[in-house]
Amino acid sequence: MPPPLRVIVIGAAGRMGQTVVDAVANAPDMEVAAGVDVVERAAPFPWFTQVDAAFAQTRPDAAVDFTTADAAAANALAAIAAGVSPVIGTTGMTAAQVEAVRAAAAAARVGAFVAPNFALGAVLMMQMARLAAPHLHHVEIIELHHDQKIDAPSGTAARTADLIAQARGGRPAVDAPTERFTLEGVRGGVTGGVRVHSVRLPGFVAHQEVIFGGPGQTLTIRHDSTSRESFMPGVLLAVRRVRALPGLVVGLEHLLVEDGVAP
Ligand code: NAP
Predict the structure, then answer these.
(1) Domain with CATH 3.40.50.720 in the chain
(2) What CATH superfamily classification does 120-225 receive?
(3) Which residue lies with its CA nearest to atom 4 of ligand 1?
(4) Is 135 a known active-site residue?
(5) Catalytic residue among 137, 146, 149, 207, which?
(6) What does pTM read for this prediction?
């Protein structure tokens, strides 16, 4: 049997990070090489507060990142410089930050991976939205997340809007005009030519509805992550595959298409 993949979890004290630590520890072909977070914490594996020290001292195969956007971008560049493949789940990175990671991965010939959503059902929801987009010309997205989420719109909503825009060949969705507003912002924000409404409430994990409209009909595509475990098969698949990727790959759908199977 090959030696286990050694995985560093960055943001290991966070909601997603803790779930990733458990998933990696329970995967038969992986081990937690280290946890990294801003504060010290006792753990049954090495713990660091600086990524560079973690990379140098534990020499991992992959670094899974669930932190904040600016931290994730810097961590990914540090990982690539150390020859470690980043698997980035953190949302909210700017296009420029993603391009910087892409350039660094290409220059260093290190595989890297970013997914705005690691849940298989969410990936299918986005693919189905892409299928519907050229045919039904009105569409709005409602994304609902827990009240601790720091970014809006969600990375999944932004990615869905991009996929819809691509599928429509750049033609923006038809936007029903509102002639008189009595409440500012009530129609949501626009990204990729698509209106997005962000709901933040305790009790939610990660949920999204894509509602298409046409004369006399609507089509609603909805996905619900009811627990953070929904993201783990996708994270583990990415860890297994990231080192063989040709530079940066964005989106779990690319790993599924190549495998032809669910994670
Ligand atoms: P969280 O509970 O706030 O966890 C983030 C953790 O990262 C915190 O412990 C935070 O520490 C730590 N951190 C911040 N900066 C760091 C740095 N430079 N180095 C090391 N650790 C650092 O957040 P979460 O709910 O786990 O979400 C994390 C990210 O994952 C968000 O961007 C969220 O949108 C995204 N997410 C993605 C998916 C997906 O499928 N792709 C699914 C769910 C969530 P402090 O709290 O002390 O600052």
Answers:
(1) 5-114+228-259
(2) Dihydrodipicolinate Reductase; domain 2 (3.30.360.10)
(3) 14
(4) no
(5) 149
(6) 0.90
235: CB partners within 8 A, 6+ apart: 20, 23, 64, 87, 89, 118
The closest residue, in CA terms, to atom 43 on ligand 1 is 16
Distances (CA, A) of 109 to 75, 89, 155, 205, 240: 17, 21, 26, 36, 17
pLDDT at 181: 95
The pLDDT value given to residue 78: 98
Residue 247, Ramachandran bin (φ over 0: left; ψ between -120 and 50: alpha; else beta): left
Q: Which of 241, 215, 250 is nearest to 117 (CA)?
A: 250
149 labelled catalytic: yes
**Which residues of the chain fall below pLDDT 50?**
261-263
How far is the centre of ligand 1, averaged over its atoms, from the C-alpha of 90 (Å)? 6
- In which residue ranges of the chain is CATH 3.30.360.10 found? 120-225
CA-74 nearest atom, ligand 1: 18
Give me the pLDDT at residue 261, please.
Answer: 47
Q: Which atom of ligand 1 is found nearest the CA of 235?
A: 40
pLDDT of residue 257: 64
Second-level CATH architecture of 5-114+228-259: 3-Layer(aba) Sandwich (3.40)
Q: What residue ranges line ligand 1, CB within 6 angstroms?
A: 10-11, 13-17, 36-39, 66-68, 71, 89-92, 115-118, 149, 151, 206, 231
CA distance 170 to 56: 45
Secondary structure letter of residue 67 according to DSSP? S
